[in-house]
Design brief:
Elements: E1 9-17, E2 36-46, E3 52-63, E4 70-82, E5 90-102, E6 129-140, E7 146-158, E8 164-171
Antiparallel strand pairs: 1-2, 2-3, 3-4, 4-5, 5-6, 6-7, 7-8
């Protein structure tokens, strides 16, 4: 839903995860080896013509046992700098906070912890809590293509590694009429 003078842009996102074929019961595996479905509500609001705005989202991830379900969310601020090289391009910077929290599970070295017994008593079954700070720089060219570089760093957590994540993405608009 498009932003108005009063209401933020609003999007409902639905997604799915297909379990991988890796050994999920090893430290720092690529994932938890579980199929999942998730839904989230995302919001964004510009503050007049200043180029400043805010964003946020809240979601729920339903995962198969023994991997616990999760709540996740983010909140942040952005600043857009329009017409940097041309009248129809823009740079955008953002800074935000992200939180992911399992709703139940076991603790590393706690009761029931025994990775040698399988995933139901190992890493996929952990009650993981992860708090991160994130930032990005993106450029949107005159053709509407977006190039983004982002970084996120762990602030605090439980049963999680100290993470520093870098990524680059390219968004290409597709005209649907």
């Amino acid at each position: 839903v498009e932003e108005t003078n009063v209401l933020p842009s609003t999007a409902l996102r639905l997604g799915g995860v297909i379990a991988g074929t890796y050994n999920e019961n090893t430290p720092f595996a690529a994932g938890d080896g579980a199929h999942a479905a998730e839904a989230s509500l995302m919001l964004g609001k510009s503050f007049g013509a200043s180029g400043f705005g805010s964003y946020g989202g809240l979601g729920y991830r339903l995962r198969e046992n023994p991997t616990p379900d999760e709540l996740f969310g983010s909140v942040g601020l952005f600043k857009q700098f329009p017409a940097v090289f041309r009248e129809s391009d823009a740079f955008t910077t953002s800074l935000g906070y992200r939180h992911v929290q399992s709703l139940d599970g076991i603790d590393i070295m706690g009761a029931g912890w025994n990775p040698a017994s399988g995933s139901s008593s190992g890493f996929p079954a952990l009650k993981e809590i992860n708090q991160m700070i994130e930032g990005s720089l993106s450029y949107t060219d005159a053709g509407g293509r977006q190039y983004q570089f982002a970084v996120a760093k762990s602030l605090d957590g439980r049963n999680t590694g100290d993470k520093c994540v870098f990524f680059f993405s390219v968004g290409i608009p597709v005209g649907i009429r």
